[in-house]
């Protein structure tokens, strides 16, 4: 029961991170709208949230001031930033897109997991609602790219 609650807490934190990251990603210029769009950003944030919840469980947390969790989370944050930086090796100008989103996802997931785990009155219901919103936003906004469409069109009439 506690395992599910802690992972659910991380998922809720990841959902908040996903919602914010998806909205932040829209004005950023993606180096590849096919691979780095709001769907991949949103689902990656949810995954990071699950990892954060798992770290909360592993650290056997009972309070927000659990040192072990914060050390694990620091490592998670470093891994997230390294993955964001590795995108630069595959795509030109990827850092401008990936690093801000990685920071949003890491900070939200890491700091909100203890909040969700230790204190929401409507914990599971709130998490389900947040996850649904995050998934819907991620999918609906996936087509909102910033690259040229590749179709030839005439300019609007004067």
Give me some keywords for this one:
158 residues, mainly alpha, 5 helices, 71% helix, flat
Q: SSE order in H/E notation? A: HHHHH
The strand count comes to 0
Structural class: mainly alpha
Q: Any idea how many domains?
A: 1
Shape: flat
- Low-pLDDT parts are 146-150
| Separation, N- and C-terminal Cα atoms | 65 Å
| Rg (C-alpha, Å) | 17 Å
| Helix proportion | over 70%
Strand content: under 5%
State the helix count: 5
Largest sheet: none
Give the overall pLDDT as a whole number. 82
Q: Can you characterise this structure?
A:
The chain is mainly α and 158 residues long. The N and C termini lie far apart (65 Å). The chain has one domain. Helix content is 71%, strand content 0%. It is built from five helices and no strands. The model is unreliable at 146-150 (pLDDT under 50). Helix 1 runs antiparallel to helix 4 and helix 3 (67-90) runs antiparallel to helix 4.
Quick structural overview:
By secondary structure, this protein is an all-alpha fold. Helix content is 71%, strand content 0%.
Topology:
Layout: H1 2-25, H2 38-58, H3 67-90, H4 95-119, H5 123-140
Helix pairs in contact: 1-2, 1-4, 1-5, 2-3, 2-4, 2-5, 3-4
